[in-house]
Design a protein that fits this description.
Number of domains: 1
Number of strands: 2
Strand content: under 5%
Strand order of the largest sheet: 1-2
Distance between the termini: 60 Å
Structural class: mainly alpha
């Protein structure tokens, strides 16, 4: 709406308050909750798909169980084998990392780096090679707006923790 010759504004139906149109760019609580769920799930399954697709000796059902347990800690107990199977199939076809770019401005830096730390730990838990493939983690970092130097520091920190 436009108030006389003033700036355009948005009026809340619930409280009748008037706000700058910039409020329309901020997601509602429900939308933000959905973005967090989808973003976390997307990032985790994107990294996991790359790990499980890489041929590695000794890879099997234990890796899938470990991955599912890890994802359940992050995504909740309703994240079951059926959902994991569907997610893995979907991410083999491509990923919607754009949801991370939508989420990034609304999550604090510690929240974004915390997600990346968890994913780095997942890579190290499932990739038993001497030099894990960090490319998918780098894709997630880029989508979250984490600088390459910060992403490298997170990887180095995760590697140091794994050696302890």
């Amino acid at each position: 709406m436009r108030a006389g010759s003033g700036e355009p504004y948005a009026e809340c139906r619930a409280c009748a308050g008037r706000f700058s149109l910039a409020v329309l760019d901020v997601p509602t609580s429900a939308r933000l909750e959905d973005l967090v769920w989808r973003g976390t799930r997307t990032a985790a399954v994107y990294v996991l798909t790359g790990l499980l697709a890489a041929p590695q000796a000794g890879r099997g059902a234990d890796d899938a169980r470990l991955a599912l347990a890890t994802l359940r800690r992050v995504l909740g107990p309703d994240y079951g084998p059926e959902v994991l199977t569907a997610d893995l199939a979907a991410h083999r076809e491509g990923s919607d990392l754009h949801v991370l770019a939508q989420l990034a401005p609304h999550v604090s830096a510690p929240g974004r780096t915390g997600l990346l730390r968890g994913l780095a730990d997942l890579v190290l838990a499932l990739d038993r090679s001497s030099s894990p493939d960090w490319s998918r983690l780098g894709d997630v970092a880029t989508a979250l707006g984490i600088a390459p130097g910060s992403a490298r520091a997170i990887v180095e920190e995760a590697c140091a923790r794994a050696r302890e």
